[in-house]
């Protein structure tokens, strides 16, 4: 579970950096970069969602094991 939590932190940091890059691209009106960065942000958010679900599943399994 610790590994999943580390990955979640990394992905959140990546999303933060990509959002900053997006703001720079918007200020420079670089359409191609804006499109690419938005796509990267969506991909990271999907991965983040998967990791959060995996963390929840791992928590439930640990909880079930502690009851038995």
Would you summarize the structure shown here?
The chain contains 2 helices and no strands.
Give the tags:
rod-shaped, Methane Monooxygenase Hydroxylase, Chain G, domain 1, 93% helix
Biggest β-sheet description: none
Number of strands: 0
Could you say which structural class the secondary elements and strand pairing correspond to? mainly alpha
What is the first-to-last residue Cα distance? Answer: 20 Å
Strand content: under 5%
Q: What do we call the CATH topology?
A: Methane Monooxygenase Hydroxylase, Chain G, domain 1
Report the order of strands and helices: HH
Parts with pLDDT < 50 across at least 5 consecutive residues? none
Whole-number count of domains: 1
Form type = rod-shaped
Mean pLDDT, all residues = 93
Q: If helices are DSSP runs of H or I spanning 4 or more residues, what is the number of helices?
A: 2
Rg over C-alpha atoms, rounded to the nearest angstrom: 17 Å
Description:
The chain has two helices and no strands. The chain has a single domain, classed as Methane Monooxygenase Hydroxylase, Chain G, domain 1. It is rod-shaped, with a radius of gyration of 17 Å. The chain has helices spanning 2-27, 31-67. By secondary structure, the chain is an all-alpha fold. The model has no long low-confidence stretch (mean pLDDT 93). Helix 1 (2-27) packs antiparallel against helix 2 (31-67). 93% of the residues lie in helices and 0% in strands. The longest helix has 37 residues, at 31-67.
């Amino acid at each position: 579970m610790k590994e999943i939590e580390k990955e979640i932190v990394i992905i959140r940091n990546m999303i933060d950096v990509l959002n900053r890059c997006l703001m720079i691209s918007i200020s420079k009106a670089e359409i191609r970069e804006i499109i690419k960065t938005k796509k990267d942000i969506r991909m990271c958010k999907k991965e983040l969602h998967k990791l959060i679900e995996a963390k929840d599943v791992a928590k439930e399994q640990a909880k079930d094991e502690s009851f038995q």
